[in-house]
Amino acid sequence: MFRRVLLATAVGLMAMSARATDRRTAEDLSADQLVFNTDKGPIATSALPSLSDMLTVQRSASFFYDYLREGSVAERLAAPVLKTTLFVPTNTIISQLARKPHEGAPGEEKIYSTEKDEEKARAEYLQDWVKTHAVAESLELKLDDLSERDSLLKDHPITFTRAEAATAVDAWASILVGPRQARVIDAVECSNGWIYMLDGVLGL
């Protein structure tokens, strides 16, 4: 449902943008492309939404997106040629954490000399937390390839295991992610990667 509704929304927005130009044609193009006329001629582009566009319209990912926008991962998403896969805990999951990622490392009671130092430490922890939920490739989860992937945070790989009752039509629904075995509850392919919605966190 998430995939169908949001893809339709994103494609609709792109179509509106195209109509604002002189005209739009789709002759001799594959079904997954749109063409936009510019002063330099027609330019074909993927009809898939970008990761940033999809995160913008997915309400259940808004907490994660707010965290992501504060650091280097956002810069990565802004570069279309860089492929990224995001494992996104839902808002409900994040809100249930005893200590939220923006509050600093769990169990940390360190006393900082200044408020600025404390804010800096929390910001660094938050960005490390986000990086543990991302890999630098467009990764389509498959049951015949459960090899671990390096996350964007060094020495924090993301592992995958097959669920005991792996009977779902979509492979991603039968794969558990990370040491806490978070379940993938939805997935969507984007122009520069994938988003997998999780019912848990990967964490540090």
From TrEMBL:
InterPro entries: FAS1_dom_sf, FAS1_domain, Mug57-like
Keyword Metal-binding: no
Domain FAS1: 48-202
Residues spanning the signal sequence: 1-20
Keyword line: Signal
Protein name, entry field: FAS1 domain-containing protein
Pfam families in the cross-refs: Fasciclin (PF02469)
